[in-house]
Amino acid sequence: MIAAGSAAETAAAAGRERTDHTEERQAMDRGADSRGQHNPDAELHWKTAISEVSSGRILIRGYDLADLIGRATFAEMLWLVTMGERPSPEVGRVLDAVLVSAVEAGAQSHCVLAARTVASCGVPVTTAMAAGALTIGKYHGGAVEGAMRQLIAIRTEVRSGSASLEEACRVAVEARLARRERLAGFGSRVHKEIDPRAETLFRITREAGFAGGYPELARAVERALEAKAGRKLPMNIDGAYAAILCEVGFRPELANALFLLSRSVGVMAHACEEQARMRPRRSIHPVDWEYDGPAQRK
Description:
Blueprint: H1 4-29, E1 51-54, E2 57-60, E3 63-64, H2 65-68, H3 74-83, H4 89-101, H5 110-119, H6 125-133, H7 144-160, H8 165-178, H9 196-207, H10 214-229, H11 237-248, H12 255-277
Antiparallel strand pairs: 1-2, 2-3
Helix pairs in contact: 3-4, 4-9, 4-11, 4-12, 5-6, 5-12, 6-12, 7-11, 8-10, 9-11, 10-11
């Protein structure tokens, strides 16, 4: 048995050692060595909580990558790397559906046109993909983060009052329109009545057991916006993306990047097809194109 006094002394010594090491590390972070002298090499020291790589081992957020291969889906890995923990099977299922939903939106998409134009010049497909990625912005594919933040703010306003969901959303929409604030996630040049992807995503989210209310909130905002505008302004894929990412607790600052990750698959395919089927440096018409792939199939 270890004597109480001895244990206390040992604990105290360990505490002093931890304090010494902490102070030494803080000094190194400031660019000084353990003697307080300036150390230029210490200024280059930095940290990451994402991965650790050594000979024969790759750890991702503490998990051995070799153990995850074949066991984790790409969507689950995405969540682990960005959020720091492995997702529940339900979150993984919903995130996978979200990624699939934005893979492609037609050859008229600006990211596709940019990628095809660059691909026609004979550059590598990766360069054409980068050109497509550069089009993702405020008016094309880059509204998801803003839509998420708007929904979070509107939800706070709804919960802070006693009005019904419909009335609270009407007030929230009118206030934003009065400030000339654009409501991100609504309206589409192609899907004038309804975006077919939105309800499918909402159904999958419900079936996975999520009931936080963000899809319902987004639909209430859609109704309020249409009532104010006097015309149909259906929720687009950005809005559906935003509502579901809010529902599962994804980080808003990564939302546009997540959309880009998904859309990059379609952009890659278009860049590859451009080089395989079309003559180099052609003039690419944005709407005068015809689909000649397989007919609709199950």
